[in-house]
Amino acid sequence: MSLKNQFGKKGWTPALMKSQKGKTFLITGATSGTGYEAARILLSKGATVVMLNRNPQKSEETIAAYKNEFGDNIDVSYITVDLGKQTSVKNAAAEILEKVTRIDALLCNGAIAQVPNQIVTEDGWESQLGVNYFGHFTLQALLYPLIEKSKGRIVTVGSMGYDMGLKTIKFDDLNWDKDYTANDAYSQSKLAQIMSIYELQNRLDKAGKKEVKAYACHPGSSRTSLISTSGSLLMKIIFGIMKLSPLTQPAKNGAYPELMCATEKDLDQTAFYGPTGRSNWVGPVGAHKLEPHAKDKIVAKKLWEISEKAIGLQWNL
Ligand SMILES: NC(=O)c1ccc[n+]([C@@H]2O[C@H](COP(=O)([O-])OP(=O)(O)OC[C@H]3O[C@@H](n4cnc5c(N)ncnc54)[C@H](OP(=O)(O)O)[C@@H]3O)[C@@H](O)[C@H]2O)c1
After folding, report:
1. Annotated catalytic, 133?
2. What's residue 2's pLDDT?
3. Is the pTM higher than 0.90?
4. CA 38 to CA 11: how far, in whole Å?
5. What is the mean pLDDT of residues 115-139?
6. 155, 203, 222, 223: which is deepest, by most CB within 10 A?
């Protein structure tokens, strides 16, 4: 399926982004990669940015780097959150609701990937599922009331990995106790992130809430710290070689889809946004094909229900 890019041949770029003065964006994982670049571009457009990072020292260094580039008058701060710990996510959400008065978009960007061995979080989930999916699911649920009040957006950064694993949710063995592989577990976590966005759209629609928007996107194949942070030695070597090829793009370009979903007016919530070039790894940003398993309503509904139970919270939709 080829879709005509609504933004023309070059696709969406930040050149299309107007001033974001007066708008507040929350971004998970802004200390490196696409999150760092997304925050940087938003700051360059005058936005208020609240970074949700796990490492306070890296947060300070990131702020110093932005101030070095844009001067001391930029409006950037951070709140510490470890997405892999539900208590940390819940505490961070409480701090956000105390300190932040509006959320124009919550960019769910932070992640770990290709973790070579099964690690179980303190909440009892396989680490990629715990960090990438459950961490964000809880954050979204707790911040939803303020996002709704702000007529804001939830933007989930998925991955083409959604289509590279089992292509469904392994409900009878969510943590891969039986046959863990780094790729299958990562793919499931990214599929779960995307599926929950389309399920959220269904639920918003049923609740008659038209002013909150939820988008799913991905950064293609971008030169970031993702594999070097959590991948195996073999994956580091493979991605190290890939980084030298035209099959990857700079981290900055990888930030464009989430920035577009956070700020652009005329988007289609039901679409999947990312690079539209080779294998959807690189190229102009726009809507592109999504395989039907990502929108399987029965699986998505079940995933939502077990997720609310697992985190001990219900969305107030
Ligand atoms: N790069 C790609 O080619 C690619 C492809 C498909 C999808 N993606 C997706 O793109 C998004 C951004 O990744 P990236 O490529 O920019 O990787 P990255 O450079 O490694 O950035 C990931 C960010 O997430 C943060 N993070 C990791 N674990 C966390 C936790 N437990 N709590 C809070 N923050 C945490 C990291 O913090 P630290 O600095 O403390 O480690 C870092 O700021 C991810 O959702 C990823 O799945 C990337």
Report:
1. no
2. 53
3. yes
4. 17
5. 98
6. 155
